[in-house]
Design goal:
Elements lengths: L2 H14 L4 H8 L3 H8 L7 H11 L4 H4 L4 H12 L6 H17 L5 H21 L5 H21 L3 H17 L3 H17 L3 H12 L6 H17 L3 H19 L12 H14 L3 H14 L11 H13 L1
Helix pairs in contact: 1-8, 2-3, 6-7, 7-9, 8-9, 9-10, 9-11, 10-11, 11-12, 11-13, 12-13, 13-14, 13-15, 15-16, 15-17, 16-17
Length: 324
């Protein structure tokens, strides 16, 4: 994790929340000159400062999560200098940074997370190219997820061509190490992008592919079947859509008994009610759509209730209410 990546993330998050450097310094009881140096990449951030900014911004520890301790910084630097001697600690440190980036995406605008994500992604991809030994496959999984996350952010920002390129790369990396959960999630994001493009046939295709990817988690299969059903309904294949909804409903109990996969930590039973709502909206069952989307939004954890990606579900709820 580079100091200027933290600076970029924190500076953009403060801006999104209406804080100038002076206002943030005053609110956190830090010297404005010190905070300015950190936010301009001229001084290394302390963990204490990162936690104070998290408290100020309500980012749930995400900024603190991207600040590596001295040991982890040294470990990562050694691996970057000599990738053939990659160790488990380096992979764990990079996975922790990625997890923090993903949590930031739940609280700040995608464009604020995108530059640092792409910069860090390129470093991880470069490290993977030279990596050898027993920890390489685990690094390939982290790299796949980093690339996938970059594609997701680009999809939200509607940089469509580059988003598709990264998502395809993420699928290839996931397939290389046989990780169906990661491959399914990248396919899911391709389905999301197709929905933003207004291409229901592609929505059905990519979500169906995600649902039937070997190794996908039951909660992924459930959500992907429902979103594929919405696409099928929109192109007039109502019977096939209903069959997929039935298949998804049969997975509900199994999925609810398992914790969601780390790469899709948001896939709780409550979240999949949002997907059930989208399927019902596509099937013109507007009352059911309203019930499921309303319950799904209400059931989101506090830190996700105002996540930027919830706009799509709120828009679907408005459409269902208007048509009911």
């Amino acid at each position: 994790m580079r100091d200027d990546d933290f600076a970029d993330l924190a500076r953009r998050a403060l801006r999104d929340n209406g804080y100038s450097i002076k206002a943030a310094a005053r609110a956190t009881n830090y010297d404005p000159a010190y905070l300015s140096r950190v936010l301009n990449g001229k001084q290394r951030p302390s963990l204490t400062l990162a936690k104070a900014l998290d408290d100020l911004l309500g980012t749930g520890g995400a900024l603190a999560g991207v600040v590596l301790g001295t040991d982890d910084r040294s470990r990562v630097a050694r691996s970057v200098a000599n990738p053939s001697r990659l160790d488990a600690g380096t992979v764990d440190a990079l996975a922790g940074v990625l997890a923090a980036y993903r949590r930031l995406d739940d609280t700040v605008k995608p464009r604020s997370v995108l530059p640092a994500t792409l910069a860090q992604m390129k470093e991880v991809v470069r490290l993977l190219k030279g990596a050898r030994g027993q920890h390489r496959d685990r690094l390939a999984e982290v790299t796949s997820e980093f690339v996938q996350f970059g594609g997701w952010l680009l999809a939200q920002e509607r940089q469509d061509a580059e988003a598709v390129r990264l998502l395809n790369d993420a699928i290839d990396l996931a397939d290389e190490v046989g990780n169906g959960t990661l491959a399914a999630q990248a396919l899911n994001f391709k389905g999301y992008l197709a929905r933003q493009q207004g291409r229901p046939q592609s929505v059905a295709r990519w979500y169906s592919a995600a649902a039937y990817t070997p190794g996908a988690h039951p909660a992924q299969r459930l959500g992907d079947m429902l979103q594929a059903a919405a696409g099928l309904a929109e192109v007039g294949e109502r019977d096939n859509a209903l069959r997929l909804v039935d298949s998804a409903e049969r997975l509900t109990e199994v999925a609810a008994k398992l914790p969601p996969p780390d790469t899709a930590y948001w896939l709780t039973p409550e979240f999949n009610r949002l997907n059930m709502g989208l399927a019902n909206l596509g099937l013109a069952r507007y009352g059911d759509a309203v019930d499921h989307i309303t319950a799904g939004l209400a059931g989101l954890p506090t830190e996700l209730k105002e996540a930027p990606w919830t706009w799509e579900h709120r828009d679907a709820l408005r459409k269902a209410l208007a048509a009911r």
